[in-house]
Amino acid sequence: MHDLGHKCGVFAVSDHTDAAELAYYGLYALQHRGQESAGIAGLIDGRIKSYVGMGLVGEVFKTDYFQNFKRARTAIAHTRYSTAGSSMLRNAQPITVDTRRGQISVAHNGNLTNGLALRQELEERGSIFQTTSDSEVILHLLAHPDYDHAEDPWVPALARLEGAFCYVGLTNDRLIAARDRHGYRPLSIGRKDGAWLIASETCAFDMIGAEYYDDVKPGELVSIKDGQLERRFFVEKRNLNTNLAHCVFEHVYFARPDSMIFGRSVHSSRTEMGKQLAREHPAQADVVVAVPDSGNAAALGYSMESGIPLDHGFVRNHYVGRSFIQPSQQQRAVAVKIKLNANRPVVEGKRVVVVDDSIIRGTTSRSRMARLWEAGAKEVHLRISCPPTRHACFFGIDFPSEDELIANQKTVEQIRDYLEVDSVGYLSEAGLLKAVNDGTSFCTACFSGKYRTPTPQGFSKLAAEC
Ligand code: SF4
C-alpha cells in the first residue's frame, strides 16, 4: 500500500500511577496511525502539563519527559499524520489551552466536515485560533459563554460537530472521550489495574497488558473522574445508530492486524478478503506473494482458498519510514525504491499472484510490479483486496485529489496496461462487505462515491488536519 495517510491515533489513561509510561507505550502501539508528531498531556497536581514534538514517538520523548511526568496519574496522548505543508510543531497535539473554565487539552482523530464553517463563525465572534487544525474548534466551543448554563458544556459543544471525530480530552479534574455519531473511526475502552484506558485501536491495550472493556459508542461521551466512568450520549436518542458509517478502510489497510476494530478482528477480515478475492478472481499460478505488510493476511487468504502456495516474494527494508508519510513527493519516491525488493528465488520463472490492499495513484504499484519482472517472473497477476478507489475521503483519511486516483481516471484494463501486468482483479464491494461480515454499517464512499453523511462545503486541507 502506498500514497495514503492515516490521520492520527489517540490514547488516554486515567488514575494509574504509571500513567506517563502507559501513555508512552500506548502511543508506540499507535505509531502506524501517524508519524509526523507525537505528544502527551498529563495532569500533575491538578494542572495540565504538555510535552509535544515533531517526529516518531521514540524520537520525541526524552529522559526529561519521564522525569517531569512521573507524578502524572492521568494523561492523554496523540500521534499525528500531517498533510503536505502543515508539518509544523504548532499543529502537534494534544492542544492545551487556558480558558475561563480552566485548562483544557484535546487530541483528535478524524476530520470535521463543518470545521471550516465553525472556525469562521467562532472567529467572527472573537476567537483567536493558535493552530491551522480543525481539531482546535472544540476548544473554542467549550470555552464559549453560550454553554454557561449547560450541565456539561461538552454535550452541546460535541453536538455541533459534523463529520468524523474521536476525541480524548483532559480538564483539571477529569478525562473525556467522545466519538462521532456515525462511528467513522474506532475508539475503545480498556482496563488495567483498575484504571481506565482509551485507545484508537485495541492493539495499544495488548501492548501494555490491559484488557479490552468496550467500544466508545457512536455519539457517546465518556467522562472519567476519580476512577468512576460515566457514559452518556451527546446526540438525541432518535438520531443514534440510524446512520452508521464505520470506515471500511480501517479493515482493508489502516488498522493493525492485531486490533479488534468495530468489534471484529482486522486479521480475520483481511484473510476473508483474500479468500473472497480468490473466488472472484482466480488465476492459474505457481505462487502467491503479498505486498508486505498490509497485503499479508489477504495473500494468506488467497492462498488458502486457491490452494496456490504462499511465499515471500518481496523483502521489506524495515528501516525505511512508510513511504506515504513523507511530506514531499521527492522523498516519497526515494523511500519507495529502497523499501521493497523482489525475492528472486521465489518469483524467477514463476507465474506469480501478487496481493496488495489497494492501488491509489498507481506509481508505487507500477514500480513494485517492475521489480517482479526484473527478478524473472514469468507472469504477474495483481489482486487487490478492495474495490477500485475512485473518490475522495472527507472523514479522516488523506487521499490525493480524485484526478490523481488512478481508478478515477482509468478502467481496470487501462490500469492493467499501465502497471504492465498480465491481469488485475479487484475485490467487489459486495465481497468486501461480506469479508467484514456486515452489509449495512460501513462507509464505502471512496469506492462507490455514495457518502453516508454530508461532505463539507468549501473543504480545505487547511481545515482538515487530523
Ligand atoms: S470514504 Fe473511504 S476512507 Fe473515507 S471513511 Fe469512507 S471508507 Fe473510510
Sequence-ordered SSE layout with sheet pairings:
Layout: E1 9-14, H1 19-29, E2 37-44, E3 47-54, H2 57-60, H3 63-68, E4 74-80, E5 95-99, E6 102-112, H4 115-124, H5 137-143, H6 154-159, E7 163-171, E8 175-179, E9 188-192, E10 195-199, H7 203-207, E11 211-215, E12 220-225, E13 228-233, E14 246-247, H8 248-254, E15 260-261, E16 264-265, H9 266-280, E17 287-290, H10 296-306, E18 310-311, E19 314-316, H11 329-339, E20 340-342, H12 344-347, E21 351-356, H13 363-374, E22 379-384, H14 406-409, H15 412-419, E23 423-426, H16 429-435, E24 442-443, H17 445-448
Parallel strand pairs: 14-24, 17-18, 17-21, 21-22, 22-23
Antiparallel strand pairs: 1-4, 1-10, 2-3, 2-4, 5-6, 6-7, 7-8, 8-12, 9-10, 9-11, 12-13, 15-16, 19-20
Residues 184, 247-249, 393, 395, 397, 443-446 line the site of iron/sulfur cluster.
